[in-house]
Design a protein that fits this description.
The protein is α+β, with helices and mostly antiparallel strands. It contains 12 helices and 17 strands. The C terminus is likely disordered.
Length: 377
């Protein structure tokens, strides 16, 4: 086929693909067409000549002995006897492979139509593979797109680079309402390939990763890794806690993240539908980290309990009675977030000895709490 190199360059430019990948896709299309219109029992190769800018299809023929059974088999055209091969080339040996040229033009309109379908199919697959790899590398990163529709189940469909991404209702912040035409930011949660729907990009606005990536966009110190996000926890649309530390002694991680008069953290909060964000300085001392995570409550002491390997880590937090409501938070939100952030199941012990679990429920006084409290005095 003439001018195949021009076709490769044209497709590569139009689709934004690498010419070498387009070249390999077209070779595959030629081979599949040959298998369909000639025979799928033979092997083929395609040579694309850069000088003549043409493509040539060759059938591979294997050299065998003169009395080989394959010569009398079901597909003798795939083989040639050694004596016949030597008439063509004196240097051939048994097992060598010769090439026999086929011209698709000789197979009429059927071959032309089949080649056209094969080229379309393989180029489309190449485009999909490129898009899949592109978005797979963006998992955990923020992308933005325009809402195309919202279905009856309140799933939001967003167009991103000509690909339709899905923001499920469960991954949408409580209270958010989108309509066609809105521009929405979200983090890429996962990318899959469905046989019927092709590439499926699932987005999320409720994951802690979305909060972290928004902070990375808003806070230069986080973006250049002067300030590092160690942990984060969210109850989407209500409240979040984020643990930070600085690798530079002169940079305050909390101050840098909050910004002057809270301008940075407020910008992130606004994107999260008014979600309150607590910034906490991280420490690898668990007692101190838990104490900070319980903010705004003032903690008297923290005791890490011994647990067996594989069991949930537990901590008892002692605090004045008037700090209990702050420690628990509305509907238990503060203690739940502190537990999520630190990785410890937290129990609250008031001075009077009552114990409150991380769900904000008052439990019966436990044995030994009086002696435990004495350890903290």
């Amino acid at each position: 086929m003439e001018k195949i190199v021009d076709i490769i360059e044209s497709i590569a430019h139009e689709k934004g693909l690498e010419p070498e990948k387009v070249k390999e896709a077209l070779k595959t299309a030629f081979i599949q067409t040959a298998k369909r219109v000639i025979s799928d029992h033979y092997d083929y190769e395609v040579d694309i000549n850069e000088d003549t800018r043409a493509a040539t299809i060759f059938q591979i023929i294997t050299v065998v002995t003169d009395d080989a059974a394959e010569l009398e088999g079901e597909y003798p055209e795939a083989y040639i006897s050694l004596s016949e091969a030597k008439d063509l080339d004196e240097d051939v040996e048994i097992g060598d492979q010769l090439q026999y040229e086929h011209k698709l033009e000789d197979y009429g309109r059927t071959a032309a139509g089949q080649l056209h379908r094969e080229i379309e199919f393989h180029i489309q697959r190449l485009v999909e593979d490129e898009l899949y790899n592109k978005f797979r590398n963006k998992v955990g990163s923020i992308i933005s797109g325009r809402v195309t529709r919202v279905d009856g189940a309140q799933n939001t469909y967003i167009e991103v680079d000509e690909i339709r991404a899905l923001l499920p209702m469960k991954s949408r912040i409580k209270g958010e309402v989108f309509k066609a035409g809105d521009v929405v930011k979200a983090v890429v949660r996962r990318v899959t390939v469905d046989k019927s729907e092709g590439i499926v990009i699932e987005l999320s606005r409720t994951s802690p990763r979305f909060l972290e990536e928004l902070l990375r966009l808003e806070v230069p110190e986080i973006n250049d890794e002067t300030v590092v996000i160690e942990h984060s926890a969210r109850i989407p649309g209500e409240r979040a806690k984020i643990a930070l530390y600085s690798i530079h002694p002169k940079v305050d991680p909390v101050g840098a993240t909050v910004g002057v008069k809270g301008v940075r953290i407020n910008a992130v909060s606004e994107e999260l539908n008014g979600e309150n964000i607590d910034c906490i300085e991280y420490t690898n001392v668990p007692e101190l980290f838990i104490s900070r995570a319980m903010s705004p409550a003032i903690i008297s002491a923290v005791l890490i309990q011994d647990t067996a390997e594989g069991e949930e880590k537990k901590a008892v937090v002692v605090l004045p009675a008037d700090q209990k409501s702050k420690a628990i938070g509305r509907s238990g939100i503060n203690i739940r977030l502190a537990s999520m952030l630190t990785g410890y199941a937290i129990e609250l012990q008031e001075r009077e000895g009552a114990v409150t679990n991380e769900a904000g429920e008052i439990e019966e006084e436990k044995e030994g709490l009086d002696s435990l409290e004495a350890l903290f005095k």
